[in-house]
Amino acid sequence: MRRVILLSIGMLALALGTLGIFLPLLPTTPFVLLAAWCFARSSPAFHHWLYQRSVFGPLLRHWEQHRALPPGAKRRAVAMILLSFGVSLWWVDTGWIRLLLLILLAGLLLMMWRLPVRAAPPDPR
Asked: Tens digit of pLDDT for each residue in 72-103?
């Protein structure tokens, strides 16, 4: 039963993470990390599948090995956060929603600022 629950949560998290690529206020990274965690504890096949995807695999493998983002990932993430929030703030006319968006933006930028960045060591080959 635990396996089925973790697998279901992993699938839902992966779906939400994938939607987060396209929707401005839905985060991608936390959902993909949750999916990886759930799959690691419920289905080695899905865990392997997720780590082999070209979209999420390299970042997941780098995070697992170094507990840090690869160089450039933080800069791209911050740029996308600023772009998506900028568009959202431009579309919204209600003052309290703008304030809420600015608070969310500040929280996300603080979270991103705290994430470490580390380059992978050069391949010895």
From this structure: 888 888 888 888 889 889 999 999 999 999 99
Residue-by-residue DSSP string for 36-77: HHHHHHH-HHHHHHHHH-TTTHHHHHHHHHHSSBPTTHHHHH
What is the Cα–Cα distance from 21 to 28, expressed in whole angstroms?
6
With 0-12 / 13-18 / 19 or more C-beta atoms within 10 angstroms meaning exposed / middle / buried, residue 91 is exposed
Give the residue from 35, 26, 31, 32 showing the smallest Cα distance to 6.
Answer: 35
CB neighbourhood size of 83 (10 A): 11
* Angle, CA of 8, 68 and 80, to the nearest 5°: 75
What is d(CA 77, CA 92) in angstroms, rounded to the nearest whole number?
A: 22
Dig out the tokens for 45 from the structure. Answer: 């096949």
